[in-house]
Write a structure and sequence with these properties.
The protein has about 280 residues and is an alpha/beta fold. The protein has helices spanning about 5, 10-20, 65-75, 110, 125-135, 145-155, 160, 175-190, 205-220, 230-235, 255-260, 265-270, and strands at about 25-40, 40-50, 55-60, 85-95, 95, 110-115, 195, 225, 240-245, 250-255.
Length: about 280
C-alpha cells in the first residue's frame, strides 16, 4: 500500500464508518447485458458485471469507448442526456431491476451517488453545499445537520482546512477543495454506492493524490466504481477492473489479473501505453 494511504488518520475512518449505511460484504449491484445508444447509434453492447461492497471497480479504455456512458446507466442518469437511452439489459440494486419501471425511484440517485469530472458546487455556503441533499431528503433531524456536515468534511479531509469558513461561498474554495466538497456532499446523502467519473481529470498531481487517498478511505465503507484514463491510478486503486473498447467489454476481472495477465492484445497494448 502507498505510504500516503497508510498515513490516513484513524479519525477519518471512524467518521466514514459513522455515516456509512452498511458494513456487510458482497455484491451490492449487478448488471446483465446492458445495451445503450445515442441517437440510434449503439454505444454499449451487452455489458455485464458486479459491483462489490468495500471494493473499487475501475473502468478503463480509450476515449469514446463507453466508460462514462456505462457509469451513467448504474443510476439511470444516462437518460438525462439528450438522445441517450438504455435499450436492453438489467441493473439489479436493492433487490430489484432499476429499469423494470418507467419512472426513476426518487431515492436511486441518492443511494447510487455520483461525482463528476469537474466539481459542481452550488451558489451557496460551504455548509449548505454539504447538507443540501440531506436536508432535502430529510435524512437527519434538523439538530443533526451540523454533526453530519462535520463528519462528512472530516472524511474528505476538509474539516481542519475550512472549519472556520463554513459560511463562506463554496465558490471561493480551490478546485481541489471543491472536488472534495462535492464528495462530502455525496457522503452526506448516505449513499451505498459512489460512482466517480474521472474525478482527478481537472486536478493537479497533489490534489489527485488527495483524491486517491480519499478513495482508499471510502473503500472501507462503500462500493466504489471509478472511471479513469490513468493506468497508474487504476493500478493503485482497483480491486476489480473492466476494459472497454468501442462500446464492448473486452476484459473484466480481478485487477491484478487484468493488469498482469491480459487475455487479449487490445488490453495488453492499452496497459503497455501503446494507445489510450
Amino acid at each position: 500500500m502507498n505510504l500516503a494511504y497508510a498515513e490516513v488518520s484513524e479519525s477519518r475512518f471512524e467518521a466514514c464508518a459513522a455515516i456509512s449505511p452498511f458494513s456487510s460484504r458482497g455484491p451490492v449491484l449487478r448488471c446483465k447485458d446492458i445495451t445503450a445508444e445515442y441517437y440510434g447509434k449503439q454505444a454499449l453492447c451487452d455489458i455485464s458485471c458486479e459491483v462489490s461492497k468495500h471494493a473499487i471497480l475501475a473502468i478503463m479504455g480509450p476515449s469514446g469507448c463507453g466508460k462514462s456512458t456505462f457509469l451513467k446507466t448504474l443510476n439511470r442518469s444516462l437518460e438525462l442526456t439528450p438522445g441517450a437511452k438504455v435499450t436492453g439489459g438489467e441493473v439489479w440494486f436493492a433487490g430489484r431491476d432499476i429499469y423494470a419501471e418507467k419512472t426513476v425511484d426518487p431515492m436511486l440517485r441518492r443511494k447510487v451517488g455520483a461525482v463528476l469530472q469537474r466539481p459542481v458546487v452550488f451558489p451557496m455556503s460551504i455548509k449548505e453545499n454539504v447538507i443540501f441533499g440531506a436536508r432535502f431528503h430529510r435524512l437527519v433531524e434538523r439538530s443533526g445537520l451540523d454533526s453530519l456536515c462535520e463528519a462528512s468534511l472530516r472524511v474528505v479531509g476538509l474539516w481542519d482546512e475550512i472549519k472556520d469558513r463554513l459560511e463562506d461561498s463554496a465558490g471561493r474554495l480551490s478546485i481541489g477543495q471543491q472536488q472534495r466538497l462535492c464528495i462530502a456532499r455525496t457522503l452526506a446523502n448516505k449513499p451505498e454506492i459512489i460512482l466517480m467519473d474521472e474525478p482527478c481529470s481537472a486536478l493537479d498531481p497533489r490534489n489527485s493524490e488527495k483524491i486517491e487517498e480519499l478513495v482508499q478511505v471510502l473503500k472501507a465503507e462503500y462500493a466504489i466504481v471509478i472511471v479513469t484514463h490513468n493506468i497508474g491510478q487504476a493500478r493503485r486503486l482497483a480491486d476489480q477492473a473492466m476494459f472497454f473498447y468501442s462500446g464492448r467489454l473486452e476484459e473484466y476481472g480481478e485487477a491484478w489479473t487484468v493488469f498482469n495477465r491480459p487475455q487479449g492484445k487490445l488490453l495488453a497494448d492499452f496497459v503497455g501505453g501503446h494507445f489510450g
